[in-house]
Specification:
- The complex is a heterodimer.
- Chain A is an all-alpha fold.
- Among the domains of chain A are: about 160 residues, Orthogonal Bundle (Tetracycline Repressor, domain 2), CATH 1.10.357.140; about 130 residues, Four Helix Bundle (Hemerythrin (Met), subunit A) (Up-down Bundle).
- Chain A is about 70% helix and about 0% strand.
- Chain A has a two-stranded antiparallel sheet.
- The longest helix of chain A has 25 residues.
- Chain A is globular, with a radius of gyration of 21 Å.
- Chain A starts with 14 loop residues before the first helix and ends with a helix.
- Chain B is an all-alpha fold.
- A two-stranded antiparallel ribbon of chain B has the order 1-2.
- The termini of chain B are far apart.
- The chains are: A mainly alpha, B mainly alpha.
- At the A-B interface, β3, α9, α10 and α14 of A face β1, β2, α2, α3 and α4 of B.
- β3 of chain A pairs antiparallel with β1 of chain B.
């Protein structure tokens, strides 16, 4: 299988209970459920000689695969030292288990960090023939395309589609999701193709297929082309040209702008935030065929979310960034890093308030979302003021559940058609447009 | 002992033709069965004689890169030879760069910790014999400094890396195409006979 993990530690058995609780809290949305499923599955334990457990959260943002591409690139990981475990099973103390649970959550965001602990370290010491085995290929391609991140990107695009004020068209939805997924796979593969020696030197990314020589660079590029070209073609011809153009632009932005910029200037974070914001916009344009204010608002929400998420995460990775030559705010401009994170937490409150103005949601949305927005802003403020590891971790973990929760609330507060029809606004226009773009 | 082999200089500015320094950290792979591979001598690893593929090893402890032992087929075409040599060069360059860079990082980090501890009036090791460390906030100054000091070096390396990566991948494409055409011609000949 793709994901193999080995729960050796009895202390970890406490986690499922907490996990189930988490599930109950957000159980009425398939996407959220799947998201938490990913969290459960993306458990990483990888220990080496010093027995430090490494959680590998997704890089920048959970919900944007393109961003994830970047994010994962940025190797967010939180290293948590635990006491050495002798070969005989030993119960970890309570706090370590809790910390492990936290790391499991964060590890959910990593795409390829789930490994069998013992098997992996043994494998690592051996010389291997560089021969591509066909039964390994699906797993290798999944890791190459960062399939988990891609899935989360597709969820954000679906959220964009779902929020669009048009009747739901299943065919269009599936085509848009598939096209977005393929485009994301392509972008992720090219990203890994560009970053082999840097990935080798970072703990989070050192087990990637190209780093380990499981696949040749030529094959990686061919795979990227065979995903990207059909993906964009599908979006352009099967959905609409606008969505196709956005998809192609996003691939370009991620692979040719963000990836090289990571090593040149701190501005890469802003470019990466745009990359993360585009998928929901694509979902919206797939449904409506046009770039409305609603699309931009959704994109704006995701754009703002990236900053507290990534900046908090990057706070704990400064050593690896410094050694690897990555230009990140947390290393070069720490004050700016925290300011920007706080600024965008507050922006989320503002953007949530704009949603009803644009007729995307009812007025209940800013009210219901206020507690979670205020909470993340509070953690953002603590991070700004304290500038230490614990506040950065708190902010990061909050961002992990904040986004799915926000999107969920947004969806439940979506303005229904009936109300809009009564107002006699552009719904009629939207409907006809939706008809036009449907497949023959 | 490492074998210093003279290779073409190529476009790499760091490459001094040192193919296999102390890169092999593994305990050695399958025993050599008289297999003849050019680079295996230095890497303390010889793939089995029957294998006609490249072999990749565990990460080097200095550079964290995985060394590759390349297979030389008996009738290697000039194009395939170019590809193999380009990959060998690239490997040597990368190995050299990262080993040096990581070593410098570790060294400067030690020096920084030492100087900070001294300024604080503390010793490198405390009473229990544990190595004293600084927390992340104190190390932040070092990380920032190190990154800006090495910025130019990284820019140069990035440029070289992208160029080499594209060249090698393009050569791989050419070789794959040539091989496919050869096989097709061979099949046609067989079918003709």
């Amino acid at each position: 299988g793709l994901f193999v993990w080995h729960l050796k530690n009895p202390g970890i058995r406490q986690i499922p209970c907490q996990f189930v609780h988490l599930c109950r809290v957000a159980n009425d949305r398939l996407i959220t459920f799947q998201y938490f499923n990913f969290l459960k599955r993306m458990y990483v334990t990888q220990y080496n000689k010093d027995l430090s457990q490494r959680a590998k959260p997704k890089s920048d943002s959970v919900a944007s695969p393109f961003r994830e591409l970047q994010q994962l690139e940025q190797e967010k990981k939180i290293i948590h030292k635990i006491r050495p475990i002798p070969p005989v099973h030993q119960r970890l103390p309570e706090t370590s288990s809790r910390n492990e649970w936290r790391e499991i959550k964060s590890a959910a965001e990593t795409e390829d960090s789930v490994t069998a602990v013992r098997a992996e370290s043994k494998d690592d010491r051996q010389w291997k023939e560089m021969k591509l085995r066909l039964d390994d290929l699906p797993g290798i391609l999944a890791r190459l395309s960062k399939i988990k991140l891609t899935a989360l990107v597709v969820s954000t695009a679906s959220a964009g589609f779902a929020m669009a004020p048009v009747p739901f068209d299943l065919t269009c939805f599936l085509l848009a999701s598939l096209g977005t997924g393929l485009a994301s796979c392509a972008a992720n593969s090219i990203n890994q193709f560009f970053e082999v020696p840097f990935d080798s030197n970072m703990n989070r990314t050192k087990n990637r297929p190209l780093v380990r020589g499981q696949i040749s660079p030529l094959l990686a590029v061919c795979f990227a082309a065979s995903c990207g070209i059909p993906g964009i073609a599908l979006l352009t011809l099967g959905v609409n040209p606008l969505t196709g153009a956005l998809g192609a632009f996003n691939i370009f932005l991620y692979t040719c702008c963000y990836t090289p910029m990571k090593r040149m200037s701190i501005a890469n974070t802003w470019v990466g935030a745009v990359v993360g914001a585009i998928p929901p916009v694509m979902g919206w344009t797939a449904a409506t065929g046009s770039l409305d204010a609603g699309a931009l608002l959704l994109g704006g929400i995701l754009y703002s979310w990236q900053f507290p998420h990534f900046n908090a995460l990057s706070w704990g990775l400064r050593e690896d960034y410094s050694r690897g030559g990555y230009c990140m705010m947390s290393v070069t401009h720490p004050g700016l890093c925290r300011r920007v994170a706080l600024r965008h937490c507050l922006a989320l409150i503002g953007l949530s308030a704009v949603a009803p103005v644009l007729d995307i949601t009812t007025w209940t949305f800013p009210i219901i979302s206020l507690p979670i927005n205020l909470y993340i802003s509070y953690l953002g403020f603590r991070f700004y003021r304290d500038a230490d590891r614990s506040s950065s971790r708190k902010l990061f973990f909050c961002s992990l559940w904040h986004l799915p929760m926000l999107l969920l609330v947004m969806f439940t507060c979506k303005k229904s058609f009936v109300e809009k029809e009564d107002k006699g606004d552009l719904l009629g226009g939207n409907r006809s447009r939706a008809m036009e773009i449907r497949l023959p | 002992m490492a074998v210093v082999r003279a290779l073409r200089g190529g476009g790499c500015c760091y490459c001094r033709l040192l193919l296999s320094s102390s890169s092999a950290s593994s305990a050695g792979g399958p025993a050599a069965e008289g297999g003849e591979r050019q680079e295996s001598a230095g890497l303390h690893f010889s793939p089995p004689a029957h294998s006609c593929k490249d072999w990749i090893g565990p990460p080097d402890k200095h550079s964290n890169l995985r060394p590759v032992v390349f297979y030389v087929p008996p009738e290697e075409s000039p194009l395939e030879r170019r590809l193999r040599e380009a990959r060998q060069e690239a490997q040597a360059c990368d190995q050299r760069f990262w080993a040096r860079h990581n070593r410098a990082f570790r060294q400067e980090k030690e020096e920084f910790i030492y100087s900070r501890l001294k300024a604080k009036g503390l010793e490198m090791r405390d009473e229990t014999g544990q190595k004293a460390t600084l927390n992340a906030e104190e190390m932040a100054d070092f990380y920032k400094d190190f990154l800006s000091k090495n910025f130019r070096k990284h820019m140069q390396y990035n440029r070289d890396w992208y160029k080499r990566n594209f060249t090698i991948t393009f050569l791989m494409g050419q070789v794959a195409l040539a091989r496919a055409l050869r096989r097709l011609r061979w099949k046609k000949k067989d079918a003709g006979n």
